[in-house]
Amino acid sequence: MLNNSTKGKIVFTDNNGSFKIGKPEDTSYLYFPIASEAGLKSSLTPNLGGDSMVDQETFILEPTSVENLHNNKNTRNFWLYMEDGKVWSASGSSAEQESQKFTMDQDESAVEAGFMWHKATRASNCYDIGAEILSFVPVNENVEIMSVTIRNTGSEEKLITPIAAVPLYGRSADNLRDHRNVTSMLHRIATTEEGVLVKPTMSFDEKGHRPNNKTYFVIGHREDGTKPESFFPTVETFVGEGGSFFKPRSVYRQEEGLRAGEKMAGLEAVGGLKFSKIKLAPDESVTFNILIGVTEDEKEIEKLSKKYAYKSEVEKEFQTTKEYWQKKVNVSFYTGDKNFDEFMAWVAFQPFLRRVYGCSFLPYHDYGRGGRGWRDLWQDCLSLLFMEPDNVRQMIVANFGGVRMDGTNATIIGEGLGNFIADRNGIARVWMDHAFWPFRTLLLYINQTGDYSILKAKVPYFKDSIVRRGTVVDKKYEVVDNKQHTEDDSVYLGSIIEHLLVENLCAFYEVGQHNVLKLRGADWNDALDMASTNGESSAFSYAYAGNLLELANLIFAVSKEDGIDEIHIATELKRLLDLDSYDSVEEKTNRLAEYCRSCEGNIKGTQASIPVNVLVEKLRGMSSWMTNHLNKQEWLEGNKGEGWFNSYYDDSCRRVERFSDSDEETRMMLTGQVFAIMGNVATDEQIHKIVQAADHYLYKEAIGGYRLNTDFREVKYDLGRMFGFAYGEKENGAVFSHMSVMYANALYGRGFAKEGFKSLNALFATAMNFNVSHMYPGIPEYFDSKGRGKYPYLTGAASWYLLTMITEVFGVKGEAGNLVIAPALLKEQFDEEGKARINLTFAEKKFDIVYTNPSKLQFGEYKIKEASLNNNKLAVENNRIIIPRKVVEEQAAHEVLVVLG
């Protein structure tokens, strides 16, 4: 009998994030990811529902959206027929077990899981039988292994007949609602000695008919290598007339299956594998290894069959896979709160999941077709800088190749590094925030590495038929190599400094009626997509004000580092540095239009030289103008020490936010506050007022903390689709993790640690309160109006949470390549002895940094009293420790002890 003391709560079972939870099938919408580096991506519910695929065209199991998780019956399954006629599903997916849910006869069950592995355990309260199903995907193979162990938990011998059943979909996700039946006619199904193979004759859709080379398969063995005795290779043979996947006729009537060597065509397929009867003595167990996969080389199936026929080989591969993914997370935290420390292990792992899955291929994420967006490319680099820094430079340089000369960027991102694709349909959508993220990522990279030389790297520009910042599609333009060419038809290469200038200067000049940056198709909030004519984003205007100042400071720093007096930029770009006054909307838009026309086709290919001091002064002047203009125009003063910044103007040219004596009439959004603080537009006095207002209008601790906005109580067709959503869902007033974390990050960056911690802690507390969040460990995209975590695993919030914990909370960050230590830990983040600890890699060297706060002082009360590196005393200046990079590189590992008092 299983111990269900873990029902309704997450219990961590080691120090690597592995956890256990009892009776997980009593919670809806749960699923877990397992995947490989080779491309296979799967999801598993507690009852082994979910799907498995390589890409949009290659789904092994039927594609599932989140509502399918509790509706679909055609899940991975493993049936047992017992000699007394009783039938039991090892995955809990049978008609009888469904009817027993929430009764005394319900199976005892649990899920235990870790990075890329999932174990479902079940024991019958009626039949004295138990099962353990381990699922994982070997690191470099496109096969999902389902290792099923059956145990006799009774006092008498049992005779059982085991039958594995995995429905094979075997085609594109598009065919789920487009020619589902017709495409089944393409199936060619065969039984082999080990299992069932499906090879469609072609891929069929409205884009055309293409020969198919992929073979989908389900094969299996008993632990000693024994093969199945017969097969049910189609829905018709397995389910039977009048049956269902919850009550298949072949199992309940113990029908004879087909032998190896049979062939069928034009039917829906099932990997139905019937094994010979087996006797189990009391407490005896037997394991079956079921392989589910796809390949373009059928010899690979034979190879996998031999490799994983025996239990010992599967166990060995499982340990290899487990260790591989554990090593990926090379940062760990110790705060005295084990739940938080293990929660952070999952937060640190989530960026790897997004690298594998993109923004698609999990049940909530049913809106994409694979791959990542522009914003994702840059934000995922943030966490990889800490965990996989080796390839980040190459990634950053390649990603800049997606920038157009008009400051916009490619939105279709292909496979491989730096592969950007033209939109053949000429659909031009511009997200006005896109220029913000590359600089933030690059700045972190330079601070972590001291690699100023990256700014001089020469990179091409992306080119397609979309010109003038997405306002015109040049149908005459022939897409050749998707690169910007010069008048002599050579590919133009510009430095990364030039790319940054192109992005940020074009954004600066593209303003609306209020001299605020135009909203265009949307900004970070994709659902603000109905104000493309007159909408303006004050929120990201604050962000760009900060960008321009920091870009100026970076150019000044690199000039001092390398002794550079001049910066070389495309001749055409110089006109965006010649305007002296920024008060006129008309002058700014005309100047941008002139520039965009100049780079509409091929550009000259010549460059102008700009003195560094002139360029730096220009950029600082732009930032200063924006800061003053926005502060004067966008600040809203409330009552009782409250105030905040307006975030947007709608397509009717109206300011979106407002203060009213009535809370119901007051409108406030979190996004504007985040970037006003982060971009240094807000003063410290204003931050105090913002915090008061956010706590009043947006904060709700029980559902995760800070909502994205107050309830506007209208469907704003002149701003975005978000207002069509129910309030508290997704972008309309949910606790959107990404912006909540960035709010914390901004507050920490300005010295408001207590206020920042409040946001981070509310997200953690809600995520780990399983009875509220109903999710496995990690941070979701958002929490809904009841606190349920939605869209788990694939969110940029994880990268920002990790970044904030390392660089702000624990205060371990790079500065021109040197290591700076300046903690902002609150007293509640130390253990009972006043200790906190972080292990991480910096400059490819391992660091173990221990803080001791023996008097348990609060942040703001303590200072760094003394510090040592490998028992050698460190200097403390202005309450910071700076360890020169030369010192960091001298040894492979470093122990740092910091005493606070």
Automatic annotation (TrEMBL):
Q: Which keywords label this protein?
A: Glycosyltransferase, Transferase
Q: What CDD domains does the record point to?
A: GH94N_LBP_like
Q: Which domain of life does the UniProt lineage start with?
A: Bacteria
* MF-aspect GO terms: carbohydrate binding; glycosyltransferase activity
Q: Where is the Glycosyl hydrolase 94 catalytic domain?
A: 324-551, 617-810
- Keyword Protease applies: no
Q: Per the database record, which ranges form the Glycosyl hydrolase 94 supersandwich domain?
A: 76-309
For this protein, the record's Pfam families field holds: GH94_b-supersand (PF06165), Glyco_hydro_94 (PF17167)
Q: Which residues form the signal peptide?
A: none
Please name the InterPro entries in this protein's record.
6-hairpin_glycosidase_sf (IPR008928), 6hp_glycosidase-like_sf (IPR012341), Gal_mutarotase_sf_dom (IPR011013), GH65_N (IPR037018), GH94_catalytic (IPR033432), GH94_Enzymes (IPR052047), Glyco_hydrolase_94_b-supersand (IPR010383)
Q: Does the keyword Coiled coil apply?
A: no
Q: Name one GO biological process term.
A: carbohydrate metabolic process
This one is known as Cellobiose phosphorylase
